[in-house]
Specification:
Elements: H1 10-19, H2 40-43, E1 48-55, E2 62-66, E3 72-73, H3 79-91, E4 100-103, E5 120-123, H4 124-133, H5 137-147, H6 149-158, H7 170-177, H8 187-196, E6 216-217, H9 219-229, H10 238-248, H11 254-257, E7 264-273, E8 276-287, E9 290-301, H12 307-333
Antiparallel strand pairs: 1-2, 1-9, 3-6, 4-5, 7-8, 8-9
Helix pairs in contact: 3-5, 3-6, 3-10, 4-5
Signal peptide: 1-25
GO molecular function, one term: beta-lactamase activity
Domain Beta-lactamase class A catalytic: 60-172
Amino acid sequence: MRRRQFLASAAVLAGVAAVRAPAFAADDGGKSHAIPHLLDGFLKLPGQKGVQVDVDVPTSPWRVTSNPDDALFCGSCFKTFVLSAYLQEVEAGRLDELEQLVVDDGVRSFSSLVLENLTGKTPAKCALEAMITHSDNTATDMALKRVTPARVRQFIADAGLKKARIPNSTRQFFSYVAGAPQGTDIGWKAMRAIIADDKPDTSKYRPALNDVETMAAPASEFVAYYKRALTGGYFQKPETLTEFKRIQAMADAIAMVVPADTPAYMKGGSIDWNGFHCLAIAGQMIVRDTPVTVAFLHNWTDADGDQKQTTAAFKDAVAEVLGKVHKRVLEVRA
């Protein structure tokens, strides 16, 4: 994260599952509902990959996957769970989007395009927007502190997401992987020192994907979550769903991979840490009236491939998949 590069109701879901064609795995010979070799470009990327693409054409929904149940590091993609839990609390009247949240060194975290250099207060609504739009980590820690990590984890459990995991805060995550004891927040001053250190002692560093403080989920759980979230399955009021969609539609990753003029609700994530890299994006685009729900997770190391080249290849591969699906859906629905 030092160098962010990339940066239905149950009945409806049950109906889709009942008629969906069998899932296509990576060994399907490249065939996926008349789109030959749809995932080839993505699967050629080095390292570990997990992907699921659900195309819910009303008359003939279909799916293509590869390692969809592998829980991989997902970077900032986890922030959508924070948004949903926060909006549930707003809906219940226990939180208010207009409440002023404090921005100071107590919550400041690096990789915060909006709030890293600001001090004062801002409405919770603005923090949630910064968290999704620019993946601002300070905004994320402000929201997590207010709603509490325990509440977000309860949301994840209630949603049936068995492998999804979130950190207590982005700063506790950074502290832990930098070598601090479990549950320790080393503070903003120490965090800045780590960022500024050109020759750090990496012997104490821990992997980003670990069993204590991490950000991880499988592609299949992201797809199931977004399909339910975007049909109002987690909210009681239509206006809450509208607010969820409004904020999710602001993610800057959308413009990088989704065909132009296509409505989309997504969140991207990334990390570059001690030779380990992650790029990820999950969410849904709407092609005419067809939801296309996706998750692409990619973890690799310096030994697997060059960071800059692989980042560009990831973007191109995801854009190619979404472009091909977009074209095919328009052809089928014409």
